[in-house]
Each structure stands twice: as structure tokens, then as C-alpha cells.
Design brief:
Low-confidence stretches: none
Number of strands: 0
CATH architecture of the largest domain: Up-down Bundle
CATH class of the largest domain: Mainly Alpha
CATH topology of the largest domain: Fumarate Reductase Cytochrome B subunit
Largest sheet: none
Number of domains: 2
Distance between the termini: 38 Å
Shape: elongated
Mean pLDDT: 88
Strand content: under 5%
Order of helices and strands: HHHHHHHHHHHHH
Number of helices: 13
Bound molecules: iron/sulfur cluster
Length: 358
């Protein structure tokens, strides 16, 4: 659907909602809508990214199909969110994100081949358990840093453009306490609760399964990040080089983190398979699946790298894991990984707007 038609349809539905206001207790989208008399394209993008896709408003709505108004806020918000993921990234390779994801995957495979070449050419009889046995330290850092820096630059620029378009000013970005509160809201999924009893997801009765699986995934990711950070500190400042013993902070954090990510991803995948497809779009469903399967690959190969570290399969699985890490960072700005950034900006803006009232 062209952008102007998308905006007109969102505007049509939200004008009716603003008169109805039945859903105002479900999430911050509805109070944010009530603060606006006339909607701009930036407003609807902001509301769409504030939506946590809980389905409660669709379940409750007396104006959804077969009513002639045919309201479906979660679906129109899904369309607007995928438009956001497209609009702010660079380079914009047409409107086909799968092309960009393909480019990222191809680049990552090229990196994997490069690493394999290092392994074969430089260290054919490398010891097991340590990546530096067959990948030079500086080469490993460079391979990991390039996509990380790329992703950070692209997402920083995209988020600033998004902030400008949803009506934020530069001076409003400098409120550290509001940032902490907004990030806390996002990390705790405060707004994924349907106003208290839980989301109507995947069916039409309230529950907190999606929230718990999502939190497990985020906690697992956090532990994996902590594992990498602790390993870097041990290596750079304490001169302790891998492989680390099984009972050590980097290994245990990595194993528990990977397990948490797998449990969270598999749970979310199961819920996605059973969800009400009327409340979303095929494109958003595909984006959800790509995100979850990518994270499963990331966590699964990470866990296997530790489990197989004393076997002859170690080099191969480490290469696959590194290629997966590089792929994730390379495609992050162009996939649903980016939802974290836009949603955080919208939660922050909502906190700024709601602060005087609170
Ligand atoms: S989604 Fe339906 S019930 Fe909820 S505010 Fe809009 S019109 Fe009212
Ligand atoms: S789907 Fe849930 S989070 Fe999204 S607007 Fe409706 S009630 Fe709010």
C-alpha cells in the first residue's frame, strides 16, 4: 500500500478510536492518541511503534469486521512499523528488504570463507578450545568490529531521522532520567500487559506467555553480552587467554545466556504459529520469523561452540558461529532487530509527553 494511502487508512481508524476511547487503559497508544487532535504521518508512525502488538484492542473492538468500519489497529500499526523499518535505513536498496538481508548474508558467508582461509593457510595444526589457535587476534577483532560499527552508525542516523519525523526536538533528547525510565519500561516490557491481565496473544484470552518468553530471550541475550564483556576484560586487563575453564564467568554466562535465548525463541516461535493472523500482516509475520530463527542460530551455534570445544568439530562450529554473529550485526538495521530502537524512541517520547500530567 502506498504511504499516503497507509496514512489515510490509519487516520480514518484512529479518528474513530479517538471518539470511542474504549481502549485507553490497554496501553500508552490510546492516551498518546487522546493528546492529539490532528494526526500527522509522524504521529501515526510514533503511535505504531508505541504499540506492542498485544491484540487487546482488536479483541475488544465493537467496530472490527464484520462491522462496516472494519477497524483493526494492530494490523494497521504492523503495516506502519514495517514502513518505519524500511524508511529510515541507508542504503535503501529499493523497498525489498529481503534483497538487503541477502546482501548481508552473502557478505557474512564471504567472511566465513575468509576465516576458513586463515585457518587453513596460517594454522593448520591449531590447538582446540581457543579461537586464536587459528584466527589471529587482530583479524578476529576486525571481522567482529566492522559490522558492529556499521550497524551502530546506520541505526544512530536512522533513529535521529525518526525522532525528527515524530516531532521531537534535539533539546528534548537530553533528559537522562527520562531515558533511564523509558529504557526500563522497554526492558521490562511494561506495556506488553494489556493494561494488567496480559495480552490476548496468541488467542483471544489474556495471558503473559509472550511477555515471559520475550523477557527470557532478552535476559539470555544480556547474559551472552556479559559473557563477551567479561572475557574481554579478563583477556585485556588480567592477561587470561581462552580457553577458560567450564566453571568460569565467561563460560557459565555464555551457556546460561544461550540456553535462555533458545527457550525464549522457541516459546515465541510456538506462539507465533498459533497467533491470530488477522491482527498482523504477512510481511510482519515473516519479519518475526526471520528475527527468531536468526537468534536461534546465534544462540545455538554459540552453545555448540562451548560444548564442542575439545573436539575436532570446534573450528568448523566456531567459524559458523562467527559468521552468524557477523550476519546478525550486518542485517540488524534492515530487519526487525531494529524494532528495539524505534520502540525505545517512542516510549521515551511518550514519557516526555506524559510527564507534566503525571
Ligand atoms: S479499537 Fe475499537 S474499541 Fe478500541 S478505541 Fe478504537 S474504536 Fe474503540
Ligand atoms: S494491539 Fe495492544 S499495544 Fe497495540 S494499540 Fe492495541 S492495545 Fe495497544
Amino acid at each position: 500500500m502506498p504511504l499516503h494511502e497507509l496514512f489515510e487508512e490509519a487516520n480514518r481508524q484512529l479518528v474513530i478510536c479517538n471518539a470511542c476511547r474504549y481502549c485507553e487503559g490497554y496501553c500508552p497508544v490510546w492516551p498518546a492518541l487522546e493528546r492529539r487532535r490532528h494526526l500527522t504521518p509522524g504521529d501515526v508512525a510514533h503511535l505504531a511503534n508505541l504499540c506492542h502488538d498485544c491484540n487487546d484492542c482488536l479483541t475488544a473492538c465493537m467496530y472490527s469486521a464484520p462491522h462496516e468500519f472494519e477497524l483493526n489497529p494492530p494490523q494497521i500499526f504492523s503495516k506502519l512499523r514495517t514502513d518505519t523499518y524500511d524508511r529510515y535505513v541507508w542504503p535503501r536498496v529499493g523497498q525489498v528488504r529481503s534483497t538487503r538481508a541477502l546482501v548481508g548474508t552473502a557478505l557474512s558467508l564471504a567472511v566465513a570463507v575468509l576465516l576458513l582461509a586463515f585457518r587453513l593457510a596460517l594454522h593448520p595444526h591449531a590447538p582446540k578450545g581457543s579461537p586464536y589457535g587459528f584466527i589471529p587476534h587482530d583479524a578476529l577483532i576486525a571481522v567482529a568490529l566492522v559490522p558492529v560499527v556499521w550497524g551502530l552508525i546506520i541505526m544512530t542516523i536512522a533513529s535521529l531521522h525518526y525522532w525528527r519525523d515524530i516531532g521531537g526536538s534535539w533539546s528534548e533528547l537530553a533528559h537522562p532520567v527520562t531515558w533511564m525510565n523509558a529504557l526500563s519500561d522497554g526492558a521490562r516490557l511494561k506495556h506488553m500487559s494489556g493494561g494488567g491481565p496480559g495480552c490476548d496473544y496468541p488467542g483471544d484470552s489474556p495471558n503473559n506467555l509472550r511477555k515471559y518468553f520475550h523477557l527470557t530471550l532478552v535476559a539470555g541475550f544480556g547474559l551472552c553480552f556479559a559473557s563477551t564483556t567479561v572475557a574481554a576484560i579478563e583477556e585485556e586487563f588480567l592477561n587470561r587467554i581462552p580457553p577458560y575453564p567450564i566453571i568460569s564467568a565467561p563460560v557459565l554466562l555464555g551457556l546460561f545466556g544461550g540456553a535462555g535465548m533458545l527457550v525464549g525463541c522457541l516459546g515465541l516461535l510456538r506462539l507465533q504459529q498459533r497467533r491470530n493472523l488477522e491482527a498482523t500482516t504477512p510481511r510482519m509475520s515473516a519479519a518475526d520469523r526471520v528475527l527468531v530463527w536468526t537468534l536461534i542460530a546465534l544462540a545455538g551455534t554459540g552453545v555448540l561452540t562451548t560444548v564442542l570445544r575439545s573436539t575436532s568439530a570446534y573450528a568448523a562450529i566456531l567459524l559458523i558461529h562467527l559468521a552468524t554473529v557477523v550476519t546478525c550485526f550486518a542485517i540488524a538495521p534492515y530487519t526487525k532487530f531494529a524494532h528495539f530502537v524505534y520502540r525505545s524512541m517512542s516510549i521515551y517520547k511518550d514519557r516526555l509527553e506524559a510527564a507534566p500530567r503525571n
